[in-house]
Structure formats: structure tokens, C-alpha cells
Amino acid sequence: MARPTSFGKDTGLQVRMTITMFLLGLVYVVLVVALLAAGANGVTVAIIAAGLAAFQLFGSDKLALRAMGAREVSPAEAPELHAMIERLCIQADLPKPKVAVADTRMPNAFALGRSPKSATVCATTGIMEQLSPAELEGVMAHELTHVANRDVLVMTLAGFFATIAAYVVQFGFLFGGGHGDDDDNPSAMVLFLVSIVVYVVSFLLMQALSRYREFAADRGAALITGRPSALASALQTISSGMHRIPQRDLRASQELSAFYFFPPGVGKAIGGLFATHPPMEKRIAALERLERQLQGTAA
Amino acid sequence: MGLFDILTGKRKVKQPAESRLFAMSTAGVHLDMSMGLTSSGKAAIVFQPLATTDFESIVTDMEEVLRGTGEETGTGVEKTDDSFGYRWMILSDPEYEDLVVGVNVVSQALQDGGYGERILCAVFAFRDAKDQPVYWIYNYKRGAYYPFVPAGGDQRRDTERELRLKAQIGSELPIEAELERWFPLWGIPI
After folding, report:
1. Based on the structure, what is the number of domains in chain A?
2. pTM to 2 decimals?
3. In this model, does residue B59 exceed pLDDT 60?
4. Is residue A136 included in any domain, yes or no?
């Protein structure tokens, strides 16, 4: 039997992700045109948004860790976790990230940092207790794939223009009023309307992009560990645990939730369109497909 | 990884770099004569065993080849699985160069089978003048060696000694340039 060469191939996902990004770009071009048409005010908003995005990229890691109640741990404090991550780093050809642990019973993990060199991966004490070593390895490989794919950077940049649109919508009155020459300034009104549309459309596209990147991270984790089923089993364990345990530790912001291994507070009420993470069943089905590819039984 | 790969989240596990494994056989003399490191007579290669029939048959074939040649060269073969789920093929042979050859047999068999990316590393064990263990670890994906000296106690390494070893070995071995990739391996069974 030949080696299953199709392992890890998912052209459909690649195509969907590319199309989503293309659409996002398209929407943003419209916004930029409107911003430029609005003149000085529009450019000011863009500069402010750029500053905030830069702050988010360069300064928010420590803040986010503190918000999660996580702290960096030394190899002596968490030897097993460190050794596991070191081995995964060799396999994934990554420099070793900082390792942090959050002391909460909620089973979860997340990755922070704009580049592999400045990355931090964090696991909660809950996830380390509930998962078997192989399952935990799958979860950490998922987070390391987020790091390798630079998902924090990609999502921050993808959300950059959406942020601008949000500012314009929120502070729209600043553009319109002021000098009593409302009638002479129709471009402000156009900008306001364009921003609303851009905001709504880009929000949906961003959520879709986030879901695709979750699939990509699951696939990356399966490739690194060679054990898709271990990750599928981890997903199952965590999702059943998530519903059992009350969600009192939910202080995370929306931005953070995109990089969670499993989104907190995911309920049936939230439509699939608005979710940052794909439903668990779909993730497990995708992993099952990978396992079949690996076993060479895929059609 | 290119820009397009980052944008589309494409991720392939890196295949081994061009093999510089055999640098170890020529460096052996230098290690022994100038640095006072003698081979412990053991080396190991570590990989992730996949639970597929294809992979298992490759491993079985490879072990047979290894045992076959071992009867000629006197190389002993053992295998053990560690707590992280990695498999260690441990070779023992007083002839140092046979160890390098044996390690190469294993890695070559895995690469020929198309599973090169499953190899974690190769470990060559040495003892210094005080009979303390000194390891040289070969990272296949990087094609480079780095020293690893456990300092006793839990999870402590003698970084000073490792840096000195790097200086002493000079250009005899291709050394991993990025220090943050000198990944330790705790509980090496050789």
C-alpha cells in the first residue's frame, strides 16, 4: 500500500478562505474610497484606528494574559507541559513560545502574540486535569498552529478596516455636524452609510474567516501530531465539560475568544453565522476525514 | 512559510533538511581526542509512531533490516515508548561509527516510506572525564546538532557547559545557530 499522500489536503477550505479574504478586501476598498472622499476627517479616523491596531499587536499580550488570570510558568513549575510543547515545536519547526497557565476549572487553551518569536501559549489547569496526555498534545498543537499561521496578526489586520467602520458608525455625528454646512457635505452622509454596510458585511466575513482558521488549526494540529482522533476526542471531552461547568469565569473580550481552543459561552441560540468557532460536530467530522486520509481509507 | 501560506493557513509539516547526520562520524575523533568525550556506546532515534498499518509495516521492515545488519556489525537494538507517545529506537554498539550508520538506517527507512516528517531527533550519548552524561542531539528538520547536558536535579541543564561545548566543537559539527531551538529532552533513556 502506498503512503496516503492526501493526508492534510483540504482544497475546499483553502478556496473558501481565499474567497472570504477577497470579499473582505473588496468591502474595504469601498470603505477606503469613502474615507478618502470624506477628506481630512476620514484620514484622521484611519490614523487613530492604525494606532489602536498597533497597540493591540504590540502591547496587549501581557494585558490579555492578566485578564485571563494566567501567568507564565517556568519549566520547573510545569515540566510536563513544557516538555510536550518543546517536542511539538521540533516537529512544527517553531521556536519555543512562552508557556502560561491560567488557574481556572474551565477547560480551555489559547495562543497570543503577533509572531512565532513573541508568542505565548496558555492552558488552563482545568484542561490539563481533564484531558489525557495525547488529547492535551492535540490541543497544544492546535494552539501552536495558530502561532505558526500568525492568526493573531491576520485577524487583527483583517479587522483593521472593520474597526474604522465601527468608529465612523459610532462617532458619525462628528462628521456631519459642526459648521452648519451639512447640506454642502453629502460625502459625510455617504461615508456614514457605507460604514454601516461595511461594518455589517465585514463582521460576518470576519466570523467566517475565524471559523476557517479554526479548521486550519485543527488540520495543522493533526499533521503535527499525526493523531487526528486524539484531537477529536479532546474536543468531545471539552465540549461536554464546558456545558457541565457554569461559565462564571467569562471575563474575556470578544477579540480574545477568537483564539480560544473552544469558545466560551457558545450557546444554541447563537446562529452559526455569528460564531467565531465552527460547531464541534463539524470540527470532529473534519478530523475524522483526516484520520481516514491518514489510514489510507479515504475515498 | 510564504505569505500566501500564512494567509490561507496552509500548513505542511516540515520535512527533514538535507542530512548532515554523518558529520557526527567524522566529529567523533575530535570529541574523543580534544574534548575528552567518549561514546557511551549508545545512540537513539526518536519518532512519532503513527497508528496506521502502512506505518507499522514500514517500522517492522526497518527493525528487521536493523537486526539483520546488527548481527554482522554487533549492533544491539531495543525499542521503548516514552510517556509522550514517542518511540525510541535505541542502538548499542562499542563501534561508534556503527551507531551513526544504524541511526541512518532508521531515518532513511522512514523517509523512504514517506514519513520523514515523523522523525523527532537523533541522540548520541557521551560521557565526560567525570563519567557525567553529555548528549549531542541531531534535529532532522534543521539539519543541525546541539549539545544537551543535564545538570542533575529536576529539569536543570548546564547551559554554560553547553555553550562551551559549542565553542570547543568549532566547525566539526553543524551547530544549531538559534539558541532558543536547543530543545531539551528530559529523561533520555541512554
Report:
1. 1
2. 0.81
3. yes
4. yes
